[in-house]
Amino acid sequence: MIAAAIVYLLSPIDLIPDLVPFVGYVDDVLVGAVVVDGILSHLDRALVLRYWPGSPASLDAVARTASMLSAWVPRRLRRRLFRAPR
Questions:
Q1: pTM for this prediction
Q2: Domain membership flag for residue 24
Q3: Side-chain half-sphere of 50: how many Cα atoms within 13 Å?
C-alpha cells in the first residue's frame, strides 16, 4: 500500500491535475491521509510509538488529522485498500 501511494504521489498523472491551484493537491493529500490512517489503524500503537520520532501527542495529532481527512474517502474504498490479500 505504501509503495502504491508513493508511485501515485510521484506520478505526473493525477485524478485532479496539480496545475489547478490548491484543488490539484487535494487528491494527493487524501491518498496520504488514507494510507497513514490505514497504517495507524492496523498497527499496534506501542509498535508505532517505538519508531515514531516525535512525542505521543504528535502521533495522536497526526492520527486525528489523517482520520478526519480520510473520512472524505468512501469507507468501502478504504476497507478494500487495506483488506488482507486472499
A1: 0.80
A2: yes
A3: 5
The tens digit of pLDDT for each residue in 12-71 reads 777 777 777 787 788 889 999 999 999 998 899 999 999 999 999 999 999 999 999 999
What total of structural domains would you count in the chain? Answer: 1
State the Cα–Cα distance between residues 16 and 28, nearest whole angstrom.
Answer: 9
| Contact present, 48 and 40 (Cβ < 8 Å) | yes
**Alpha carbons 82 and 51: distance in angstroms, whole number:** 21
Q: What is the pLDDT of residue 36?
A: 94
Assigned domain for 86 exists: no
Residue 86, pLDDT > 60, answer: no
Does some domain include residue 19? yes
Q: What's the domain range around 76?
A: 2-81
Which triple of cell numbers denotes residue 36? 497513514
